[in-house]
Write a structure and sequence with these properties.
Elements lengths: L2 E7 L11 E3 L2 E3 L23 E2 L6 E6 L2 E6 L6 H4 L4 E4 L7 E2 L5 E8 L3 E8 L13 E3 L14 E4 L6 E2 L3 E5 L3 E7 L8 H4 L9 H4 L10 E6 L7 E5 L5 E5 L4 E5 L2 E5 L14 E7 L16 E2 L42 H18 L1
C-alpha cells in the first residue's frame, strides 16, 4: 500500500521560493549544490578539450548539451552490478580527463531541460562501453550501499543554468542498449533535490523513474520539458481541495548481518503518475565527435586525432515527438535499465541498502 508522505502541499512548483546555496550570481535551494572537493580520480573542475585517455579512471560527468555529456560505464568488460563501485566516466567529447565514447555507439538522445532537473535519455550499442550484451544493468547514484557513492568518487556537473555547477543529487540507469540520467538543479520547500532524484527504485527502470518521450531512437533532440513528480510520488486531492502525496517504496526482503529485514510495498504501481510533456524540440543531425579512436593504439594518451570520414553517430531520421506516448517497442521492460534481482541481485541489494539503513537507525 502506498504510504502518505505529506499533506496540504501545492502541486509542482517550478521555481524555488527560498535559496540557501549560491554559485556565483545564481542562488539554489539547500541540497542542490555540492560543496566538497572532486573525487581523487577527477580534475578539480569540469574541463573541456582534455587529452584522450582510453584507460582513464576519471569519474567526473558533465551534462551540458545533446552532444556534450558523459555517463558511467565499466573500465573493462563487466556487468553493471559487478562494476558499480569502480565504473568510470565516458564522454561524447574529450573532457574531464575521461574516456571518449566512440562514434557510432549512440543511436538516439533526448536532452531535456526543466526547471528542476536536466535529464538525458539515450539508446545505443553500449557494449562498446564494456557493458556485456544482454546485461540489463542497474542504477548508479551518489549514495551507494554505504554512502560512498556508486561509483566511489563519482561527481556530476552541468552548465545548463549558465555556468558550471557541481550537483549533489543525480541518478543514472544504464544497460547494454539504453541509459537515462537525471541531475537535479533546483528544489523548493515541497520538492527537495533528493526527492526529485530519488535513487531507491532500481528495479522500476527508466520510464517509471524518469518518465518522458522514449520514441526518439534515431533522433538527437534537445527539448524543454515540464517537471515530473518525484519518482514514486502520487498526488491525491483531498476533500478540502488540498493536495497530498503518497509514495511507492520498492519491495525487498532479505538478511543483513544476520537480521531479516522487509521494506517497501508488496503492490507495484503499473506506471509513473504522469508523463511530462516536452516542447521547443530542436533536432541535431549528428553528435559525432569525429575522433578516429580506432587509429589509436590500446591505452593511447594524447591530443585528438580527427577522422576524415567525420565519424558516425548520425541520426537516421529527423524531427521530434514532443510529449509523445511510449510505443510498444520502447515500452518499459527489464531490458531498459531496470535491474533484476534474479540476475543482478547486487544492484538490487545496493540500491535498497539505504532504505534498510533507515530501518535500522530510525526504528
Amino acid at each position: 500500500m502506498l504510504s502518505t508522505i505529506s499533506s496540504a502541499f501545492p502541486l509542482i512548483l517550478l521555481a524555488a521560493s527560498q535559496a540557501s546555496a549560491q554559485s556565483s550570481s545564481l542562488s539554489f535551494y539547500e541540497g542542490v549544490i555540492a560543496t566538497g572537493t572532486m573525487g581523487t580520480t577527477n580534475p578539480p573542475e569540469p574541463t573541456a578539450s582534455t587529452n584522450i585517455n582510453q584507460t582513464s579512471y576519471a569519474r567526473l560527468l558533465s551534462l551540458n548539451s545533446v552532444d556534450d555529456w558523459c555517463i558511467f560505464a565499466p573500465p573493462y568488460e563487466s556487468t553493471i552490478s559487478d562494476s558499480e563501485t569502480f565504473e568510470v566516466a565516458w564522454c561524447t567529447q574529450p573532457r574531464n580527463n575521461a574516456r571518449v565514447i566512440p562514434d557510432g555507439t549512440i543511436t538516439g538522445v533526448s536532452f531535456l531541460k526543466t526547471d528542476m532537473y536536466v535529464q538525458i535519455l539515450g539508446y545505443g550499442d553500449l557494449t562498446k562501453l564494456n557493458i556485456p550484451y544482454g546485461d540489463y544493468g542497474g542504477e548508479l547514484d551518489p549514495h551507494g550501499a554505504y554512502g560512498s557513492g556508486n561509483p566511489e568518487g563519482g561527481n556530476v556537473t552541468t552548465n545548463v543554468v549558465g555556468e558550471d555547477i557541481n550537483i549533489v543529487e543525480w541518478m543514472l540507469y544504464v544497460s547494454y542498449e539504453m541509459f537515462c540520467i537525471r541531475a537535479c538543479i533546483q528544489a523548493n520547500e515541497t520538492y527537495s533535490a533528493s526527492a526529485m532524484c530519488w535513487h531507491e527504485l532500481d528495479e522500476m527502470g527508466c520510464q517509471f523513474v524518469m518518465p518522458g518521450n522514449y520514441n526518439f531512437n534515431g533522433t538527437f533532440e534537445t527539448c524543454d520539458a515540464d517537471v515530473a513528480y518525484p519518482p514514486g510520488w502520487y498526488p491525491e486531492v483531498e476533500s478540502d481541495g488540498q493536495t497530498s502525496f503518497s509514495s511507492f517504496a520498492q519491495y525487498w526482503t532479505g538478511v543483513v548481518d544476520g537480521v531479516t529485514y522487509t521494506v517497501g510495498d508488496t503492490v507495484t504501481p503499473s506506471s509513473a503518475y504522469s508523463t511530462p510533456s516536452s516542447s521547443n524540440c530542436v533536432t541535431t543531425s549528428t553528435i559525432s565527435n569525429g575522433i578516429a579512436l580506432a587509429s589509436l593504439t590500446s591505452g593511447a594518451v594524447g591530443t585528438v586525432p580527427t577522422s576524415s570520414a567525420g565519424g558516425s553517430g548520425t541520426a537516421s531520421r529527423s524531427g521530434s515527438a514532443s510529449g509523445a506516448t511510449v510505443s510498444a517497442s520502447n515500452a518499459a521492460s527489464p531490458s531498459f535499465c531496470a535491474s533484476s534481482s534474479s540476475h543482478y541481485g547486487g544492484v538490487f541489494f545496493t540500491a535498497l541498502m539505504s532504505a534498510v539503513t533507515a530501518v535500522v537507525f530510525l526504528h
